[in-house]
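Let's inspect one such protein example.
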Amino acid sequence: MIIVSAADERFVPHFATLLHSVWTHQPNAQVHLLDCGIAPATRATLVNFANGLGIALAISHVDTTPFADLPTNKLLSAATYARLLIPDLFPSAERALYLDADCVVVGDLTDLWRTDLGEAAIGGVYDHAMVMERRVGIALSSYVNAGVLLMNLPVWRRERLSAAATAFIRQHQPGFLDQTAINAACAGRICYVHERWNFLLGAGHSVGNWVGPRIIHCTGVAKPWLHRNAFLGELYRCHRRQTPFPLAEPRAVCPSKTRLLLYLLGGRRRYWYQFLIRRRARAFVEAYLAARARSNLTTSGRYEQDTLSARVHEPS
């Protein structure tokens, strides 16, 4: 299994968290990090961490100069475009699983890896939130989130999809940059997979059809490294604490308890759904943390039993 991610210096702690989670559930995976501007000392720390885990990590420096004329924003740096290089960086590979650095693997990935893509260029999860891209002509009913992509690399190379995506960005300047461009380039060649493979924390989820995720993706405003009440944030922090990049227990909440109470009392449907889905997810989170505690998984000797067995934070 080939897993590829990309990071600059800012996102290294999140990638280390992802790496630990991959090692936990897919220890034999080949993990490739596309280095989009990581300091030498930080890179050495990552290498030592991977060696300690015993996981195969290959770090490749990526020249982002070809993307210098492409737009970026406060949230997305030039590192976001690195995934467009994957087909050429792995010329003999048939497929690769791309994961954003702010993803956390919380289950076995074998079934996803074995998905029959046929002639589809990508396998991805439908993204309900991207209504903002209607202006560039993307069919919202087929829009997928590009943070988790199972890539059919021969199709990408044959159809020159990376070049098509880059041309789309230059022409349309989409708000979600290469994600929207990938959707445009791969239109009609997308294999849709279950949301468990890219469980978007910032998206709405069905209360009555809860299925435990295999990959959580830290989208949305509430981030688990900043907000203690971030949905499924305990799972991110469980793995982050086993990395060389320490994380203080977040104190902020988003939204504030007072504001959330007002939203609930006011009947705001979105927040009632969030409240109910958190209750549905309680058993999953507690079971996951208990399993990690029993396994005594640690790479640093700083195992913290009391933290790993912490309760799920509920809004109140």
Residues 206-308 form one domain. Residues 125 and 144 are 5 Å apart (CA to CA). The first strand starts at residue 2 and ends at 7.
